[in-house]
Design brief:
- By secondary structure, the protein is α/β, with parallel strands linked by helices.
- It contains 10 helices and 7 strands.
- The protein has a 5-stranded mixed sheet with strand order 3-4-5-6-7, with helices on both faces.
- Strand 4, helix 6 and strand 5 (about 220-225) form a beta-alpha-beta unit.
- The protein is globular.
- The two termini are about 25 Å apart.
Length: about 325
């Protein structure tokens, strides 16, 4: 279990940071921001500099839907850092309509899973270097998943929503208690934004589980977290009515500060050095759908991901 059982839904990231400040106290902090939007990184860099003058901040531009951009970002990061203690993979899109990337891969899966899979895998040497001088389990990979993984397992038979027949254990679950599916959200060819999002978020959890199973003995563990329902820009492709309808299904809508809290628990809580569980929500371990924690599916997904990016990574 996590160190602070009192932490929960309304715990802020500031509270978590204060609780685990001793995990980085006295160390040289170098924070690398990665985003496709340079202007947004400029705003954040300025805020950090104003509040924490001793923290070095660097920027790396990356578009997670383009392999060449990912490779360039990894190369730039390696120039900046000799080792990397924590990766927080917090980037996602949510497309109302079916889109494919340049490789013909469904865009949510390509960005929300393959992009972070590829970037993290390329940065593994930096993680291994950090693990050489860190406590076992203190080097972390944190994937920001979602309770929305409930919507779908990995559709190995029809990854790209091309209309192929699905195996019985690959079918989406779009009837969630308390959730009302907006009208017009399933296309004539069977594409559902929610199923596509769920598939990618399931992939985030399976990736974390697989990384821990392979890297734990090297001192590296990985977690996937549900940050909570937060009013961010991820739903900007939907009408205001649809987007508000999605927010209304949540019992509580978190602030940005509250939404970041579980990520920081996953990144810095020393009680999580063991890597015994994978999925967290509201700053505590939580159950995920069985299809999101199946070790056989985790290995199958890893091998498929290597095939799709055209690279194999030694774990």
């Amino acid at each position: 279990m996590a160190t602070h059982s009192e932490f929960g839904e309304k715990t802020s990231a500031i509270e978590v940071a204060k609780a685990f400040a001793d995990q980085i106290k006295g160390k040289t902090a170098h924070l690398v921001l990665a985003s496709r939007t340079d202007a947004k990184m400029d705003v954040i860099s300025k805020r950090i500099a104003e509040s924490f003058a001793g923290v070095q901040v660097s920027k790396v531009q990356v578009d997670l839907s383009f392999p060449d951009s990912i490779k360039h970002a990894a190369s730039e990061t390696k120039k900046l850092l000799g080792k990397l203690n924590v990766i927080i993979n917090n980037a996602a899109i949510f497309n109302k309509d079916r889109q494919l990337d340049s490789r013909g891969i469904e865009m949510q899966f390509a960005t929300n899973h393959l992009g972070i899979f590829h970037l993290t895998s390329l940065l593994l040497p930096l993680l291994r270097k950090a693990a050489e001088t860190s406590r076992a389990g203190a080097v972390r990979v944190v994937n920001v998943s979602s309770a929305g993984h409930f919507f779908s397992p990995i559709r190995f038979s029809d990854l790209n929503f091309a209309g192929n027949n699905l195996d019985s254990d690959e079918k989406p679950n779009l009837e969630i208690p308390g959730f009302v599916m907006p009208e017009g959200m399933i296309s004539a060819k069977g594409y559902s934004a929610f199923a596509a999002y769920g598939q990618a978020k399931t992939a985030n959890i399976l990736m974390a589980q697989y990384l821990t199973s392979k890297l734990k003995d090297s001192g590296i563990v990985s977690y996937a977290v549900h940050p909570g329902t937060i009013a961010t820009g991820i739903g900007r492709g939907f009408s205001p009515e649809h987007y508000q309808g999605m927010l209304d299904t949540a019992e509580y809508v978190k602030s940005i500060d509250e939404g970041a809290a579980t990520m920081l628990v996953a990144a810095f809580d020393p009680a999580l050095n063991t890597g015994k569980e994978t999925y967290l929500s509201d700053c505590q371990f939580a159950p995920a759908m069985p299809f999101a924690t199946d070790p056989v599916k985790a290995e199958k997904l890893w091998k498929l991901s290597e095939e799709l990016v055209g690279e194999k990574f030694e774990l």
